[in-house]
Design goal:
The complex is a heterodimer of chains A (111) and B (112). By secondary structure, chain A is mainly beta. Chain A contains no helices and eleven strands. The chains are: A mainly beta (111), B mainly beta (112).
């Protein structure tokens, strides 16, 4: 089976660092995506991890550990505009185009 | 370059009617996937087309169908609409394989 879990909501302060966790149970997957979605808008691509380890891209970093079934998205120097839903998604083997999404984590950044 | 274009943006339909939604992928992208997004279920995969062939299908009833044209544009159709079909319908395009998926802004369907 395939299941992806994320916290439903998180709150953080402007300028701080926040880590959004994603745990998954899948029989096998090519890689793990993170998307950002502002209310009423399209999900936008943040990162894609295939190998274990940390991928850094500006203020955003993403980590994957296949052995632990675990990923996280790290957001540094939080800005008010980072308030959004963050979606973790797995791309299973031989299931082209079929992303399995978690429920998303609603992040609120407070001044 | 142009992104993924979905039309219409908003739609209101009555129970029992049918609806057709359109998705134009990024130029050169041959894979188009469709998702339903609701507050309770999150993003759920509907189906994926690659070079006019359906490669994958999610767990939705047969009322949900789709197709892809030779120019990679895709349509999805929902027949005999139910109130529970009210959702944001998103499509995503990619080159195929494990490449990144770019989403359109979606079509917000309301069934009354």
């Amino acid at each position: 089976g395939q299941n992806i879990d994320q916290p439903t909501e998180m709150t953080a302060t402007e300028g701080a660092i926040v880590q959004i966790n994603c745990t998954y149970q899948t029989s096998g997957f090519n890689g793990l995506f993170w998307y950002q979605q502002h209310a009423g808008e399209a999900p936008t691509f943040l990162s894609y991890n295939v190998l274990d380890g940390l991928e850094e891209k500006g203020r955003f970093s993403s980590f994957l550990s296949r052995s632990k079934g675990y990923s996280y998205l790290l957001l540094k120097e939080l800005q008010m505009k980072d308030s959004a839903s963050y979606l973790c998604a797995a791309l299973p083997y031989n299931q082209g185009g079929k992303l399995i999404f978690g429920q998303g984590t609603e992040l609120s950044v407070k001044p | 370059k142009a992104g993924v274009t979905q039309t219409p943006r908003y739609l209101i339909k009555t129970r029992g009617q049918q609806v057709t939604l359109s998705c134009s992928p990024i130029s050169g992208h041959r894979s188009v996937s469709w998702y339903q997004q609701t507050p309770g279920q999150g993003l759920q995969f509907l189906f994926e087309y690659f070079s006019e062939t359906q490669r994958n299908k999610g767990n939705f009833p047969g009322r949900f169908s789709g197709r892809q044209f030779s120019n990679s544009r895709s349509e999805m159709n929902v027949s005999t609409l139910e109130l529970g079909d009210s959702a944001l319908y998103l499509c995503a395009s990619s080159l195929g394989g494990t490449d990144g998926y770019t989403f359109g802004s979606g079509t917000r369907l309301t069934v009354v």
